[in-house]
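Morning F.,

Quick status update on the modeling queue. The single chain you submitted on Monday has been processed. Sequence for confirmation:
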Amino acid sequence: MEFSSIDSLNVYFFLWAAILIFFMKAGFILLEVGQIRQKNVGTHMTLKFLDLATVLILYFFVGYGVAYGFQYIGGGLIPAGTEPGSFAHFMKMVMFAVAAVTIVSGAVAERIKISGYIIGAIVIGTLIYPIYEGLAWGSFMGGFLRDLGYHDFAGAGVVHLMGGTLGITAAWVLGPRLGRYDENGKPVPIPGHNVTFVVIGAFILAFGWFGFNIGSASFIGPDGANIASVAVVTALSMAAAILTSALVTKGDPIWCSNGMCAGLVAICAGADLFTPVSALIVGGVAGLIIPYVFKFVEEKGIDDTCGVTPVHAVSGLWGVLAAGLFIPSVSLTSQIIGSLVVIVLAVAGGLATYGVLKTLGLLRVDPEMEIIGLDESLYEMNVYPESIIERIDPS
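Structure tokens below.
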């Protein structure tokens, strides 16, 4: 298959976006490990390696086909668009799938079994996520939501509302960490071990997010104006969210980091059509509400370790609905329907997947392992060997 110069430019554009989205993985790792305890850091990084490798392989052979259809090539059935010459789109979309799957780990950190987590990642990456991707962007059920008018330019709903909802569902099934609640059911904070990691992770994510959003354009226009406007509203939403989250948390650096991410999540749905003013509103609201959402979830007894519910699920939902509120050409009704579909699919799929894993004893580590720490229990190692980790039985 030969490409014209403009086609070659668009192939490069897709691959550039995929590379930036891939590097977001480093941001996710730092943002999350900074919010957990030293004794579990190594295991959490292992989860990130394994979900990446699993999704890259299985989305190629199964998930991409679920979303965009299968075709016969050379007597074999393969996902449409994965034949040589059509890899560019796949590379971008597989990185979206990787992002959606890895969001879950932040909600279940410090007490999930590696085997259970990876089985969950397989189900999400090959079935749950691609079904919704196909409804919104691809050919599953004829792209029902897309044809309905549902607008989700860069995945506020497809990636973030999906991943965040799966995360809170998994956290609920899994149960809270030992010591997270006292005998009266009141939340007890479990501080992470490195705020600097959290902040650096947020900035790495923001760097990659420009590829995430700009790369969601299907082409580069003759003057590049279509992608330049995406960059501007992405930056403005991020900035507004940082300011509002800082305002309501007295400048807490962890919440500034989460606010930055919330603004980037929320703008995704309409980054191609939001005006600069509406981008400021969208980001400002996202940054404003996330600490209150986290507190609400916490008080309901759900231990969302790294706050994926406010940052991804709720900010993603707000962004999808905001596209219907602020963009004249986007139907609010279609946005509401699209949101309800992803929530129902994620909750039902998450309950089924993690419920079965829990029943089979594959979901949660033993209490003794959790007390000692997953790193020493699994690997007899400590990521910080010079540190002495206190072993206190919170029960």
